[in-house]
Write a structure and sequence with these properties.
416 residues; alpha/beta; Rossmann fold; 2 domains; eight-stranded mixed sheet; transmembrane; Glycosyltransferase_grp1
Length: 416
């Protein structure tokens, strides 16, 4: 089976689609990737790449074809919008030319924001006479309004019309959370297949190089206290003000918990200013570290924290970090509503607090550190076993191959 994977984001950017592509190749699938020039999350194109050129390279024998992009920059909504639209236009113009000698049985779209990246996939799937599978990672247009990225009702309506167009040309939609089903059904044509397909736990590649001194210092700091570690994007969706509010309350109460917000994002500078303004000595902002160091950071943590804003769309979402947290075997505090909180509860892997409630989050920190160490270890082990049963990459790759095979058979049988 020959599969084209289209995604604006791909290796060496740190997204789960890379591990899935490798697993598909291991199962005998001939995979080709069409993507952009890497520039996430720094906003600048990575060393060795050029923003305004097409390029070809191999990743473990997998062809990776890249189209030009306008780098996303930092803290600029305009540049981010241009980045989104530039990839769509670039993949439409250059994609068919780069793929002119290729034939495919399936076009598979990995679709975090922006969902608009499915537009060139529709055209390429038509050219190649192949079905298109859309793995929806983010609900549009809902996420645009929930994060405040777009507030204009007319623009949101236009985006909704484009999303309807995308779904009309989708042969199979995969969703990482059952909460996505009803919002998609409202925009999709009747009868479009929608199937649950969760994000997998990424394989942890051992760190081949000795840990740098900053990482060793960070690990020592995390391991040496009652640490609550948040890892990932530091942006508008993550309700970071709730974490700071909880930290402020705990500091006033004399609690020993320390928060480590590991990562970077659009609110990194705001966080640094707020931590200083509030005098929060119990909050550290160490920055972003390479993906291969994350297992060591998780292992050093006492507790792992995930949070989202109190918005209806986020109650439908399971942040992909939750699977990684479960696999790490550490107790979890989930300060969010809906599907993500239910997952942590189903795994018996931690405690939950309502989204946006800083006092409730502080209470859960007090609660979890009030448990015996053996009880916290049991929570962590529950999470690890749950992740192995439900989110193991090899099993999910096998499932995807079966679904793609069935889709191609259905297409062949329906062809005149």
């Amino acid at each position: 089976m020959r599969v084209l994977v289209l995604s604006q984001y791909f290796w060496p950017e740190n997204f789960g689609i890379t591990g899935l592509v490798k697993s598909l190749q291991e199962r005998g699938v001939e995979v080709t990737v069409l993507t952009g020039q890497p520039n996430y999350p720094s906003g600048s194109v990575f060393d060795g790449y050029s923003a305004w050129q097409t390029s070809r390279e191999l990743m473990d024998g997998i062809p990776v074809l890249r189209v030009p992009v306008a780098p996303r920059g930092k803290k600029s909504g305009l540049r981010l919008a241009v980045n989104y639209l530039a990839f769509v236009a670039s993949a439409l113009v250059f994609g068919p030319w780069l793929l002119r000698r290729h034939r495919f049985d399936v076009v598979f779209v990995y679709a975090p924001s922006p969902l608009l990246q499915a537009i060139p996939a529709i055209f390429i799937a038509w050219l190649k006479r192949a079905p298109m599978v859309l793995w929806v990672q983010d609900l549009w247009p809902e996420s645009l309004s929930a994060t405040g990225f777009v507030r204009n009702a007319r623009v949101l309506g236009w985006v909704g019309s484009v999303v309807r167009f995308i779904y009309r040309h989708t042969d199979l939609a995969l969703i990482p959370s059952e909460g996505f089903r009803k919002p998609i059904e409202k925009l999709a044509p009747p009868g479009m297949p929608i199937e649950f397909y969760p994000n997998a736990v990424a394989r942890s590649e051992p760190c081949s190089e000795p840990l740098s001194e900053p990482i060793q210092v960070l690990l020592a700091g995390i391991a040496g206290c009652r640490s609550v570690v948040f890892a990932g994007n530091l942006g508008a969706a993550q309700s970071l003000e709730t974490i700071l509010g909880a930290a402020e309350y705990l500091a006033k109460e004399g609690h020993e918990a320390r928060f480590f917000l590991v990562g970077s994002g659009s609110l990194s500078d705001w966080l640094a200013e707020e931590i200083e303004r509030r005098g929060l000595s119990n909050v550290s902002l160490p920055g972003r570290f390479p993906p291969e160091t994350m297992p060591a950071i998780y292992e050093a943590a006492s507790v792992l924290l995930v949070s989202l804003r109190d918005e209806p769309i986020f109650a439908l979402t399971i942040p992909s970090k939750v699977q990684g947290y479960l696999a790490a075997g550490k107790p979890i505090i989930a300060a969010l509503n809906g599907e993500g909180a239910r997952l942590v509860e189903a795994a018996s892997a931690g405690v939950t607090a309502p989204a946006g409630d800083c006092r409730a989050l502080a209470d859960r920190v007090i609660q979890i550190f009030g448990l015996e160490e053996a009880e916290r270890r049991e929570m962590g082990e529950n999470g690890r076993q749950f992740a192995q049963r439900h989110f193991e990459l090899d099993g999910l790759a096998d499932t995807l191959v079966s679904r793609l095979d069935a889709l191609t058979v259905k297409r062949r049988n329906s062809s005149p």
